[in-house]
Amino acid sequence: MLQKLLLQSLSKAALNRRMLSIDSGSIALASDLGLKRIQNQDKVSVMKFSFNQKAYTLVALADGMGGMRDGKECAELCIAAFFASAIELTHLSSAELLRTATLATNKAVHEFSNGKGGCTLSAVLFGSDLSPVSVNVGDSRIYGRSAVSNRLIRLSVDDSLAEVVGGSGTELLQFIGMGDGLSPHVAPLIDDVEQVYLTTDGVHYIEPQTLALITENTEKVTQVVERLIATARWCGGPDNASICAIDIPTLNFNHRDNSAVIELTDPFGATQFIWAMPPKEKVQIELEAINSKPSIPDSNQPDDLPVLLDKEQENPKKRTRRTSKKKNAKNENENDEMKLTLSSEDNEVNNEAAE
What we know:
By secondary structure, the chain is α+β, with helices and mostly antiparallel strands. It is 25% helix and 26% strand. The protein has helices at 2-10, 71-87, 94-113, 161-165, 201-204, 208-216, 221-234, 311-314, 325-332; strands spanning 17-22, 27-32, 42-51, 54-63, 121-127, 130-137, 141-146, 152-154, 185-188, 193-199, 241-247, 261-266, 269-276, 339-344. The protein has an eight-stranded antiparallel beta sheet. A six-stranded antiparallel beta sheet has the order 1-2-11-10-7-8. The protein is globular, with a radius of gyration of 21 Å.
């Protein structure tokens, strides 16, 4: 059920280009359609949750496979399934949590696409009392900036034919949704890394020296994200471009004392899932409210973008349906599942990346 609710939030209509930062600027996310594509098949998101007084921040990015079916849907399902699996696996070590969640995600996407679609996955797990660990599948990438040398370091290896066996082939040897045989790359982050960047190929197609100069000469992660997204567009914007940048020393783990709340953030808004636990072994899951604040419009986007309205906005004069006493009595006796309250709100928002 949680996976379904996460997917519902991740699949909401979005602008072609947007950036958002959270935790007083310690995490910044952005996604851009680019100048050549008609659909954005990237998905980047952050989930904050806690368990047993331990706080977690899980950052993940997926890129739908070009030339295969349902790239957008596979990327959205990938993030939703990965996050939902991770929450259930907090009893494992960080490395095993990421490995097991990745394998579960691969199975979910494979069942959805029947092997005819898929996506990449790059993710990093941060915790209030654990060292960061990363996982990577495909050709999305994870970079880090060293606090000692201030140099940009590539922390992941592409699963491409070129990088595995040499040559110039860009075909992927493994991806999320391929089915049996997936071997996720799980590794701890290098100790001296102070900033981490997750990118799709629409960002890191930029000439490597330019990528390094921007990250090495920019202090704040919000500025890194703005500049890389803008540069990708200035260089022609041939593909969807998405990035998440994290400043590790300033990460906020204040949510450790509130195990009832799960926060989901992408470049287009934020949603809070609030878990209410009545004193029953089984409880009913009830979606009480999803009411996202509208995103700040991009002046460069067309005026006819779809707008999602909730039921009351669509029909403010809608009558309230009466429920019979007999039906109410029946519902009161069916307290056999968990109640779930959802609220949605935007976190602090930065201006869009400049053209």
